Amino acid sequence: MKALKKFVFSTFLLSGLFSYNQLPAQSLPDFSISTYRIENPSILNHSSVEIKSNWDFYWGKFISPYDNTTKPDAVVSTPSDWNKYQLSKEINEITKTGLGSGTYRLKITNLTPGTEYVFPTYKLAYNAFTVFADKKMIYQSGVPSEKWEQTITKQFFDTARFIPGDDGTVTLTIFVSNDFYRKGGLRGKLILYEESYYRNYYFRTLTSYSIFTGILLMISIYCLLNFFLKKDKSSLYLSLLILSVFTRLATADFSVLKVIFPNLPFTVMLRIEYISVFFIPGFLTLYIDTLNKFIFKKIPAMVIAAPSFIFFILDLVLPIRQANMTVPYMQTYMYTVIAVDSLLFIISFFKARDVITTISIISLIIVALGATFNILAIHHIKIFGGINFLIPAFAQFAFLQIILLAYIQNKNYLKVFELHDYLNETNKAYYRFVPKEFLELLCKKDITEITLGEYKISKAAVLSADIRNFTSTSEKLVPIQVFDMLNSYLRRVAPLIRKYNGIIEKYLGDGIIAIFPESSEAALNCAIEMQEQMIELRQEFAERGMPQIKIGIGIHYGDIVIGTGGNNERMTEISLSKDIDIAILTESKTKQYHKPILVTYDAIKYAATEARNNGHKFNFYGQKIHDAQSSVIFSIFNDNFENAL
Fold first, then answer.
1. Interval 406-434: pLDDT, tens
2. Straight-line distance from the first to the last Cα atom of the chain, in angstroms, rounded to the nearest whole number
3. What are phi and psi of 248, to 5 degrees?
């Protein structure tokens, strides 16, 4: 009987082994692969679907896409970290530090056959991964390895693409390995799009992120310029705080930085991403301290901010794994500092309720909420659908701080408004006696910088103008009429001198001496327009029943000495030069030759050279006059005033 039992058992065993060897792999009984059904596939042509499903997970091995028999070690939801998967103690000793390798698998059904689908792959898994659709590899990020120590890490801002089978199904198999990150597994959501819709979505998102980051950069640059121009430390700290937020935004889920620099190493991207976590609490504390010195009266702000800069240095010098391990501590520090800063501000608010404190508290609460949601999202705890509030929170913070700075600046402006207005009126009064242009010639910014005995030698055209027969004309008028006539004349010609960048050096009763630094052509053009204005002035005087007046103008070009003279109690500007005397002498000859404008050869020569240097011809109406004393002078006129004298 025992022999019969042994024979039956042996026969059954051999037949079973024989049958196993004869059956092909695909005919073996399949286990049930985790499946996600797309309820309404048509929605993907104008929207996206987030795949919320359990995945089959295989620890420490890469299961071939052809393998339909091996059962998973666990069924897990994603995104999730394998650090906390329910595996054996031996495996958990490795996974709790994030290191390791594994395979994820999911079948998606009810897709539209023949349609191309895509899903973003940036930060889909730690650190390297390969994606298969059915049996075809559709994407690889770095080089994952079952021996996780051999992982080659890379991340790209890209998408994986596939076309489902004729039955509308696809099985996704993802190999993942991690050699340094503190967490491992599928870290991101798998969001599915039809390829045609994703193209439009991508460009819209890229545009919005670019605009948003551009706004942050502009605000930061504005604050930085405000610091350099006004030496305002609060603007500096706010600028650096916003730049820290920018580093987070530029490396976040939709990485503008990775779009611009696709080959930027993943480890460098991580270090840049950490900057926001390191710097935000430090610069936030220093910024608050500049707004209100009483808040950190008992705890110095620099003591609270110091760890930020220590962690930043560690981020730069430590190996990437050690730097990555410091992040949770830094996140705790960041959240603690934001909470402490908010609490101190609230205490300050109850002591002194003002606009500055109110806006600051609101902005800090927004930042605290954004940081809280961000930390919860990192640990896959979803609030409000898992929306990332950190970036918009800091955007609101930056906006409120700009409003706050504007309010402070306006408040300061109002405090000094009366003083500024008084000083402005005082300066205007000074400039009526000492022209600003005179200060510029002496390279001075303000009249208070002028000292006795300063001088400067400069090339200039000198214009001398004088009213003809002024003495005999004024004798026929009462004093008030004389001043009215003289001021009407000066109101006409003085703006013309300023128009051509001239300086009225002095008034000589009815005469004017004007200087045109480095420009003889401007002096000539000014003289011509002055004579044209005199035609209008004579018409005005005729209507008012006042005497007709005419002026003669002489112009010369040469060296002048401009400086200050007098004593410490009473100074005045002084112009010394024989060339000024030549201009006055030239003007006096307008009576002799009955010409409205006479110009020396030096003035004509320099004006012609100046015109050529400016790329245009020097044209004038006039004639050459041979004068015994001056050698050669020129008469300048046009048809309007040729016979003005």
1. 777 677 666 655 654 544 554 454 444 44
2. 155
3. -70, -45
